[in-house]
Structure formats: C-alpha cells, structure tokens
Amino acid sequence: MSDVTIRPAVASDASGICHVHQRAVRILCRFDYTADQVEGWIGARVPQNYVESMTSGEQLWVAESYGQVVGFAGRKGPEITAVYVDPHYARQGIGQQLLQVVEQSAATGGVPCVYLDASLTAVSFYTNAGYKSVENGTHRLRSGVEIACVRMEKRLMRQRAASGS
Ligand SMILES: CC(C)(COP(=O)(O)OP(=O)(O)OC[C@H]1O[C@@H](n2cnc3c(N)ncnc32)[C@H](O)[C@@H]1OP(=O)(O)O)[C@@H](O)C(=O)NCCC(=O)NCCS
C-alpha cells in the first residue's frame, strides 16, 4: 500500500478534497447512477463548499500520500457524512483507515451509534466494516437531484477513559 497518513483537514486541503470527491463519484459511482444523477451529485461542487462545511461543525479528515489528498471522510455528530477515495488509490485499505479514524473520533466524543446514507456503490464497503442496513431510501442532494441510497448504522464500542486505575 502507498504511504498514507490520515489527519484532520485544513482549509488549504479544500481543492484536493473537491478533486477526489469529483473523481470518486464520476468514476466509481457511474455504474450505479445515471449521468444526470452523477452530475447533480458532484457537478456544482467547488472547494469553498468544503471550507464552509469545516466552519459549520462538520469535521473532515484527509488521507494524504506524498503531499497529495487521495481520500477524505467527514462526520457531523452521529452522522458519517462522507468517505471517498480517489479511484487510483481504491481497494488499498484507505477507505477503511478513514472510516476507523472517524468512528474513533465519534466513540471518543461519546457517540454510541453512527449512521450514514450509503451510496449503492459503497454498501459492500460499509457492510464489510460492520454496518447494518436499516432501510432503502433516497438522498436529496443540494442540487435537488435525488439518488437512491441505503441508511446504515453501526453501534460503536464504548471507549474507556484513559486513567491509571
Ligand atoms: C467506497 C469507498 C470509499 C471505498 O474505499 P476503498 O479505499 O476503495 O476501500 P477499502 O480498500 O478500504 O475496502 C475495504 C473493504 O471494503 C470492501 N469493499 C470496498 N470497495 C468495495 C467494492 N467496490 N465492492 C465490494 N466490496 C468493496 C472490501 O471488502 C474491501 O476489502 P478487500 O479490498 O480486502 O476485499 C470508495 O470505493 C469510494 O470512494 N467510492 C465512491 C464514492 C462513494 O460511494 N462513497 C461513499 C459515499 S456514502
């Protein structure tokens, strides 16, 4: 696997995040959604959107390899808002590493159970990570376009407070 570091995102990562987001959806999701849905999902995204997310209470993390953003993930409270990996780096365990960092942050913050709206493309990925499907649904995107998704959730292990006793 490439040399990958997971770290909290900063504003200067926004264009790298936007690039990965667009490539992941356009390339990896194209077999599960129509071209119109893909463009409604991703076409209008700009780096400033991610800066705004970061300043409105959504935590973002990036996977970085040799100074380049190759994946990112997000969480807002109990909701996992994003896990995306650049297609060139797919199936190398980077998505799993990102998800583990997000879950760890939720557990440390006292969140007992996390949920997400999984794209049809990502259901196997989340199932492999221990998520259970709750119901099939649709996710209404900012653009107004609706895409099929699956609500999934996972109960987290309780984190022990670090103490000497
Ligand atoms: C879903 C996604 C984040 C997975 O990232 P990744 O780095 O490729 O995933 P990993 O390498 O960590 O995969 C871990 C395990 O999940 C499962 N998995 C991942 N992608 C899978 C796929 N396309 N089909 C079936 N199983 C898959 C496998 O069990 C895999 O282990 P293995 O490679 O040893 O078989 C990535 O494919 C992606 O960005 N997809 C498009 C965007 C998207 O739909 N994101 C989710 C929005 S809700």
How is the topology of this model organized?
Blueprint: E1 5-8, H1 14-28, H2 35-42, H3 47-55, E2 59-65, E3 68-76, E4 79-85, H4 94-108, E5 113-119, H5 123-128, E6 132-140, E7 146-155
Antiparallel strand pairs: 1-2, 2-3, 3-4, 5-7, 6-7
The chain binds coenzyme A.
**Helical segment count:** 5
How many beta strands in the DSSP annotation? 7
Q: Topology as H/E string? A: EHHHEEEHEHEE
Ranges with pLDDT <50 over ≥5 residues?
none
**Main beta sheet, described?**
4 strands, antiparallel
The CATH topology, please? Aminopeptidase
- Report the top-level CATH class: Alpha Beta
The set of bound ligands, ions and cofactors reads:
coenzyme A
Describe the protein's architecture and organization.
There is one protein chain. Helix content is 32%, strand content 32%. With 165 residues, the chain is α+β, with helices and mostly antiparallel strands. β6 and β7 form a beta hairpin. α1 packs antiparallel against α2 (35-42) and α1 (14-28) packs across α3. It is globular. The termini are far apart. The model has no long low-confidence stretch (mean pLDDT 94). The protein binds coenzyme A (COA). Coenzyme A (COA) is lined by residues 24-25, 28-29, 83-85, 90-96, 118-119, 121-122, 124-125, 128.
What would the keywords be for this entry?
165 residues; four-stranded antiparallel β-sheet; three-stranded antiparallel β-sheet; 32% helix; binds coenzyme A; alpha+beta; 5 helices; Aminopeptidase; globular; single chain
Entry summary:
By secondary structure, the protein is an alpha+beta fold. The chain has helices spanning 14-28, 35-42, 47-55, 94-108, 123-128; strands at 5-8, 59-65, 68-76, 79-85, 113-119, 132-140, 146-155.
